[in-house]
Design goal:
By secondary structure, this protein is α+β, with helices and mostly antiparallel strands. It has one domain (8-242): Class II aldolase/adducin N-terminal domain (L-fuculose-1-phosphate Aldolase), CATH 3.40.225. It is built from 8 helices and 8 strands, in the order H-E-E-E-E-H-E-H-E-H-E-E-H-H-H-H. It has helices at residues 4-29, 86-98, 111-116, 150-160, 180-203, 211-220, 223-240, 242-246, and strands spanning 39-43, 51-53, 69-71, 77-79, 104-108, 137-140, 165-168, 172-177. The protein has an 8-stranded mixed sheet with strand order 4-3-2-1-5-8-7-6, with helices on both faces. Strand 1 (39-43) and strand 2 form a beta hairpin. Helix 1 (4-29) packs parallel to helix 5 (180-203). The two termini are 22 Å apart. Residues 18-198 form the Class II aldolase/adducin N-terminal domain. It comes from Nakamurella alba. This is Class II aldolase/adducin family protein.
Length: 250
């Protein structure tokens, strides 16, 4: 007799892998691909001590489900075939280990994020969208080159704490959430918020939203809303890329 619960988890695994591929392609679509830099991960629902990621060096815009590799907590590939980005492993494994509720995490060297990360500041509540990160992100001040050891990753995860986003000084930004959908949307949205604040800074004027209103608006930017926003982009990338739509689990 088949196990309905196991079948549900297998379907969930297929959905997560498809959305991970869509997420990489969205990053390429929005210009977040820069050589081999950047990585997105999703926790495997069948073995939650492992996560899926694209092979190191694969162009984001060409990633397929068949390309994905599953990596364990030691950095070993346990399913699939391909090289693993060591920085991706050390950062994402630290976050997934420190926060069992996190299913998705995203990082790339987006233009406005890495520019903003060169400034000694966090995002201010200048727009309704930026309020999504008000009191929900911080800044990791250390910059010690490429993340090539777990200790570095652990320090990043500790600084991030329970936040949904982290600015990595002179590097870029990182997002994490209870779903891949929310993590990817927050990454995309935060990049646009960096762009918006940089434009405001260029004018020399700003009118921040007061604390009470900013805190209220932050509470309205829920995980569910982030997932809804991602769903619109998910449908968009599938409409633009028929091969992706054809591989959607049903």
């Amino acid at each position: 007799m088949s196990d309905p619960a196991a079948a549900d988890l297998q379907f969930e695994q297929a959905v997560r892998k498809h959305k991970l591929v869509a997420s990489y392609r969205l990053f390429a679509r929005f210009g977040f691909d820069e050589g081999a830099a950047g990585h997105i991960t999703v926790r495997d629902p069948l073995d939650r001590n492992t996560f899926w990621v694209a092979p190191f060096g694969r162009w984001f815009g060409g990633v397929t489900v068949a390309d994905l590799v599953r990596v364990d907590q030691y950095g070993d590939v346990v399913e699939g075939s391909g090289p693993v980005n060591k920085a991706a492993f050390f950062i994402h494994s630290a976050i997934h280990d420190a926060r069992p509720e996190v299913d998705g995490a995203a990082h790339a060297h987006a233009l406005h994020a890495k520019t903003f990360a060169a400034l000694d500041r966090t995002l201010r509540p200048l727009t309704q969208d930026s309020c999504a990160f008000y009191g929900r992100h911080s800044r990791f001040e250390e910059f010690s080159g490429v993340v090539l050891d777990r200790g570095y990753g652990d320090r990043i995860a500790k600084t991030m704490g329970e936040d949904r986003a982290l600015i990595l000084a002179n590097h870029g930004h990182l997002t994490a959430a209870t779903s891949l959908d929310a993590a990817v949307w927050w990454f995309i949205s935060m990049e646009r918020c960096f762009q918006s604040e940089l434009l405001v800074l260029a004018t020399g004027e700003a009118s921040p939203i007061p604390h009470e209103e900013a805190a209220l608006t932050a509470s309205q930017h829920t995980v569910e809303y982030a997932e809804l926003c991602f769903s619109a982009l998910y449908e968009r990338i599938m409409a633009e890329q028929p091969d992706l739509a054809a591989s959607r689990p049903v």
